[in-house]
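Technical appendix A lists one of the benchmark inputs used to test multi-chain prediction within the project. The record comprises two sequence entries:
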Amino acid sequence: MLSVTGLFTEYPNEKGEIVKAAQDVSFEVPEGELFTLLGPSGCGKTTTLRSIAGLERPRAGEISVNGVPVYSSANGIFIAPNKRNFGMVFQSYAIWPHMNVFKNAAFSLEVGARKYSKKEIENRVMRVLTAVGLDHVADREATKMSGGQQQRLALARALVMEPKLLLLDEPLSNLDAKLREQMRSELKRMQRELGLTTIYVTHDQSEALALSHEIAVMSAGRIVQIGSPRDIYERPRNKFVADFVGLTNFLDATIEEADGDGYRVNSSIGALSVTSFDQYSRGDAVLISVRPEDIELYQARPQGVNVIEGKVDFKVFLGEVLDYQIMIGERKVLARAHPSFKSRLGDTVFLRMDPEKCITIQDNTQYRKAA
Amino acid sequence: MNRIDMDAAGQFLASPSAETRGWRNIDLKWLIIGLSVGLVAYLALMPLAFLLWQSFFTPQTATKAVEFTLDNYVTAYSSVETLKLFFNSVTFAAGTSTFSFLIGTALAWMNERTNTPLKSLFFALSIIPMIIPGILFTVAWILLASPKIGIVNLLLQGFFNTEYVFVNIYSMWGMIWVDGLHYSSMAFLIMTAAFRSMDPALEESAMMSGASVPQIAWHITLKLTWPAIFATLLILFVRSIESFEVPALLGLPVGIQVFTSSIYQAIHQYPSKIGLASSYAVTLLFITSIGIYFQSKLSSHGSRYSTVTGKGFRPRAMDLGRWRYLTAAIFVVYFALIVILPFLVLVWSSLQKFYSVPSLAALQNLSFDAYAFILTYPTMISAFVNSLFLAVGCATGVMLVTSVICWIVVKTKLPGRWILDNLASLPMVFPGLVLGLAIMIFYLNVDVGIYGTMWILFIAYVTRFMPYGLRYNMTSMLQIHKELEESAAMSGASWSTTFRRIILPLLKPGLLAGWIYIMIASIRELSTSILLYSPGTEVVAVLIWELWENGQYVELSALGVMFIVALFLLVMLAQIVSRKFGIKEN
């Protein structure tokens, strides 16, 4: 549905230096899916979104919707943002303070190329306001509303124009934690029900994992991995993705021999069986990523492979989980356990890691700097 | 254009307003932008260029054509007179600015940082001094403190039974006193803003570190407000060196000349010496430009100092104990000196047949003849209509044009937009009289048929108040988040729709405040008008000036009283209107 190909967007900053905000960005979004651009601040995700919106003019590339280009450097096409019919929710919500709720939502119907009758505008606006649960405050001053209500209004305003594409720029980042979770599931339900193709920009990995059909992780202007939330989380293709999405332990290792789907490696905490999606040969240096929640802790030595002995160095109680920092020789490893697992500092514990959860990663220095 | 500029231009085109289709929209957008830019450049540069040009030429006469000469500058700079002129101007300006600054700062500090009683009332009243036109304020102080008829002298002489002249307003000290008082309310407002923009946490943390009040005042408050202090002094210096009413009314009769009054005299003698006036004007312009340049440098530097928290806060007021009654008394005395006494003396004078000092005998002779005279004065109606037309037209025009200029400067990445900002601010350096002179010269030489009409006054007012309009709009424009505009574009609105339905309504607080300010300032305006009016195009301020020259003090007072009351009502009305229709601050 949306197709972005070879997109480059650059602009001069305050000092006149060129900021390479988006570099060779390409992706496809099928009809009805929610696609997330995920990355740290300054990675180019917002610029990419704004380029799709037409608020930034890219230097090169092509952006097309249903095969019709809205931007193409090769053909010299640039459709102005007000002619694209994309709905957008801004990070600040951009609710116009001089209009009430109804007026805010009705604006796009009043100014667009297509003319609507008064009755028609009212019907459409009220339908959308009802959908987001704001029909009872339609007459209220827009600035008198809470953060969550403003967020719904911004969404309503974007939806009322029946856009071809919905663009969301960190829409939940200004809400407090509780409300954010609530809005997140509402947003997901609404997107799935309407089947509206949506591009979502966020720096919050849990939002991205919770909402998306597909995620593109960006770093330094480039997309470093595209995949389903499960792919991104369980099979990070490089160190940056593994590090940015969730917590993980990185272990230096060298390949010993092939072993089923993976390899036997010699790691900084001892010999391990690991899973791999790449081909290696004996002696190759690799990085192993193990998520803290994939490390099981035992007081007595358990059965199975990948069992390592360590000492409890430090622990942090976080409510639903208990984080343990375990010393294995000189190496510290983070393990996440259920609070019922009780161990005192200095106690000997045993770690067991499922070989499926120990992933080899190409230690690509290109991403190391960005991380 | 280098690459960066190209990119910047591309960026500008890619702004939400950019269009590649729909030629009508492109036309309208670029037409409005182009017109505004052209207008600003024309208004700001043309008079300046002609003023400079004129200062290098001899006057045109029937027998001799103009020729190039340096004589004007030679005359201006080779005489001892000029040295005296320069000395007088600087003494006057330095005295006035220091005096008004000290008063204004003391009042601002008492108002912002102490628990003085009545201070909220005082702040509400602080706008009133701004309403009284300089010429009326000066005339009132002549009636109060002139050596012969001044009430203060007569009272003191009666009390001590002596002929000794206690105060003489016709002196350098008198000029500094009157002009200093007049500008003190401006100093008060600027310093109040400076005190407010400072985060009280900075002072509080010094207190928590164990500093005493004087230590805090010296090490924290003063050091942090230092850029604001110096910038305020500079702007007051510039305003006083270019003030015209006080030196003309108080200085000229006793031969104390400054640049502004000399420019006026050079034009108003026969044959008028436009060249000489121009060379004085260029000198004055040079001084004010330096002042404004450093002032703006300091102000932008100062903003780095003042840490604005954004949230409205009320710093902890210092408890003055019993001293607070003294500070309250100072408020009362100040208000009496700057508003009540001048206004009362005008009222008294307006109720007489012939001017006489207040006494029981004079009380018998009260009459409303002067008011009747003014209301039937032949040019009264037209002057009133002219003033109103100019004020409303100028305020509206300035605010609309500067809103577009502001949008370009703040919201686009157009290369060279800072030039536009500076161009629109340029008239700030023109003293009113110099601007009048420059515009007079320009339209005498470039005959487009507006010399001697209302339009020349209109152009002068628009030029003079453009920088103020720009500042008011700039403050509001900076507060408009760019996403508000972008979301309109995403909703399908064109540039002109966005400007009309989003930008202008959001600018409304600034637009209204600026509109009111410019309207009042242009109604009071005398120094620009004095060289540009002709019979039929008098404005009210000029009428007052004419009455003064004719020696009709009583009639002048009647007009003055009505003028002040009308301006006061206008300000009240404007405030009510803006409170009703302005956007509520959230």
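The interface with chain B takes residues 10-12, 16, 18, 53-57, 78-88, 90-94, 96-98, 107-108, 111-113, 141, 143, 154, 157-158, 161, 167 of chain A (CB under 8 Å). Residues 365-371 of chain A have pLDDT under 50 and may be disordered. Comparable benchmark entries are summarised in Table A2.
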